[in-house]
Amino acid sequence: xxxxxxxxxxxxxxxxxxxxxxxxxxxxxxxxxxxxxxxxxxxxxxxxxxxxxxxxxxxxxxxxxxxxxxxxxxxxxxxxxxxxxxxxxxxxxxxxxxxxxxxxxxxxxxxxxxxxxxxxxxxxxxxxxxxxxxxxxxxxxxxxxxxxxxxxxxxxxxxxxxxxxxxxxxxxxxxxxxxxxxxxxxxxxxxxxxxxxxxxxx
Length: 202
Prior knowledge:
The protein has helices at 55-61, 65-68, 74-85, 95-108, 121-128, 136-142, 153-172, 179-184; strands at residues 7-15, 26-35, 38-46, 88-92, 118-120. The chain is of the alpha/beta class. It has a single domain (3-193), classed as Nucleotidyltransferase, domain 5 (2-Layer Sandwich), CATH 3.30.420. Strands 3-2-1-4-5 form a five-stranded mixed beta sheet. Strand 4, helix 4 and strand 5 form a beta-alpha-beta unit. The radius of gyration is 17 Å and the shape is globular. The two termini are 28 Å apart. 36% of the residues are buried.
């Protein structure tokens, strides 16, 4: 499938911990669905994790126990998420983290997380060799874009979307036009794929 025809669902989660294996839960999620750079739908909500959050976690994202007290449970937003993800390629920065939490939440709701195609902008950044530091806020800063709200779900989602389309513009101009080719760019150094990184300035 041509990249210009793909719907990308950029997403980010904020959580109560570092791993679902350690009992961590999602406490906020945001999704932005786009195609060809045009945003089609956006969705963001706090989620009641039904457990207290440690002060160290609150210090990172600023989401307090009081803020999520009246928020929906994950099972309440699951139908909307499935609707948004349908027919999309999922995109996240450090996707293993977000997808790991989503898989856990789906399973706790009695559902299997579908085998969506996934693009990780962190892996693209690392393999491109274009950035001094590959954390999301640092990448957008290096691109001259604002990183206000870093570590809140919708702010991170929109930053990830900017980074995705930055990469797509570079790669499409150099002959990367399919999802299979884009996927390869996550796992191989771009220079090894014949993509000249020396000409790319950010």
